[in-house]
Amino acid sequence: MPDPLPQAAAAAGFTDYVQDYSGPVYALSCLLLEKGARAEQAAAATFAALYTEWAKGRLPDNAGAADAYRECIRQCALLAPDRSRCTCALLSWEDMTVSALWYGLQLPLSDISGILQRSIPELKVQLRSIREQMAAASSQIPAVHQPTAG
């Protein structure tokens, strides 16, 4: 992934934050947008936006993963060609986001709750719905015939 920071940001102490969260942010952008230029663009835009907030003093000194993930989701939403339905699954954008955080990054529900600012019971209901949708979709895929030896 290209260096998402302008030179001034590196000199100003924002580098540690980027080093800590660039891998997970890039992973999330790949889960939401698939690997490629759009995912790299989203990850870079995430840190550019966070740097702008940091430079203005609006990003708290204790900014952590939740801030980075929240901004990454926002940047990915801007770059997603059709947020109403994801091309890689039969899920809505909101379901894809929860799925990426839970199944992809394997974050605890308490962290996802903080990132998305939703209650844990709501997330549990949504995850159950996602599992049901995926199970229904997989049951509609025809089985592949496996030739027998002999």
Condensed summary:
The chain has helices spanning 7-11, 15-33, 37-55, 65-79, 93-104, 109-116, 120-139.
Backbone CA Rg: 18 Å
SSE-based structural type: mainly alpha
Question: Would you list the SSEs in sequence order as H and E?
Answer: HHHHHHH
Q: Give a count of the beta strands, DSSP E runs of length 2 or more.
A: 0
Low-confidence stretches: none
Measure the end-to-end span: 50 Å
Strand content is under 5%
Report on the structure:
This protein has 150 residues and is mainly α. The chain has seven helices and no strands. Helix 2 (15-33) runs antiparallel to helix 3 (37-55), helix 2 (15-33) crosses helix 4 and helix 2 crosses helix 5. 29% of the residues are buried. The mean pLDDT is 83.
Describe the protein's topology.
Blueprint: H1 7-11, H2 15-33, H3 37-55, H4 65-79, H5 93-104, H6 109-116, H7 120-139
Helix pairs in contact: 2-3, 2-4, 2-5, 3-4, 4-6
Features:
150 residues, mainly alpha, 7 helices
